[in-house]
């Protein structure tokens, strides 16, 4: 289900209507909209807590955006902009679907999001506390976002347990199946910081001397992914297999269109080994 709700959530980052909605409230430039929109449920916070909960950004990149974005738009304005842009984006992808389809999908996704355990999950809790949207697409996107941030909080907890720091996590993953240049630049790390992280990964036994993933690193990261899945499973146990499968069917035509705007370098919303998700279990 991660590959479903993550794809729905992702329109806020990659659709031009989302970018335009942020610009309309004064948040010009991609990263101003990103940091203001994603942080807004927490209120007008400064950089330190965001460095913590976002986990993998270079601190100076967060510090360039926060708290300065709050001089351009309030958290309330950023929240309205992100929801407006997301709904307009989803409207382009769903105009051929009957309203009954969207209503049922929103109801089921909200039912799952209503079961999130918020203890220890800062972004998940902040999004779960927001009022429900008035229209089906707003409800759908907000529920997807709550589930997405809830799962992300659990993932950060699992990553912290490895003892790796944020740039080490990124550097290791990019030696497995991700783009070094995409993630290094998108998260604000320098070449020197990245190279030093790879050196530390060699010392930790996660990479070989020639920078290939070791069995130890592979096994340890597999354990992170399994822990992340376990921590995110509660809403789907509560929803049950039959309703989860029905939700997958309803989301599928929406998700397929959302994925068309996700950059290929990004892992967001993409199954690990195949384009079509496996049946619900």
What does this structure look like?
This protein has 281 residues and is mostly helical. The chain has a domain at 2-160 and 226-261. It is built from 16 helices and no strands. It has helices spanning 2-9, 11-14, 16-24, 30-39, 47-54, 59-65, 75-94, 99-113, 122-128, 136-160, 166-174, 180-187, 191-204, 215-232, 234-239, 241-258. Helix 3 runs antiparallel to helix 7 (75-94) and helix 10 crosses helix 14 (215-232). Residues 272-281 have low confidence and may be disordered.
Annotate the secondary structure layout:
Elements: H1 2-9, H2 11-14, H3 16-24, H4 30-39, H5 47-54, H6 59-65, H7 75-94, H8 99-113, H9 122-128, H10 136-160, H11 166-174, H12 180-187, H13 191-204, H14 215-232, H15 234-239, H16 241-258
Helix pairs in contact: 1-10, 1-16, 3-7, 4-7, 5-6, 7-10, 8-10, 8-16, 9-10, 10-14, 11-13
Strand content: under 5%
Uncertain ranges? 272-281
Shape designation: globular
Helix run count? 16
Question: How many beta strands in the DSSP annotation?
Answer: 0
Radius of gyration: 19 Å
Give me the strand/helix succession: HHHHHHHHHHHHHHHH
| Main beta sheet strand tally, sense and closure | none
Structural class: mainly alpha
Q: Percent helix among the residues? A: 55-70%
Mean pLDDT: 94
Distance between the termini: 10 Å
Task: Summarize this structure as a short list of keywords or feature phrases.
281 residues, mainly alpha
Task: Give a quick precis of the structure.
The chain has helices spanning 2-9, 11-14, 16-24, 30-39, 47-54, 59-65, 75-94, 99-113, 122-128, 136-160, 166-174, 180-187, 191-204, 215-232, 234-239, 241-258.
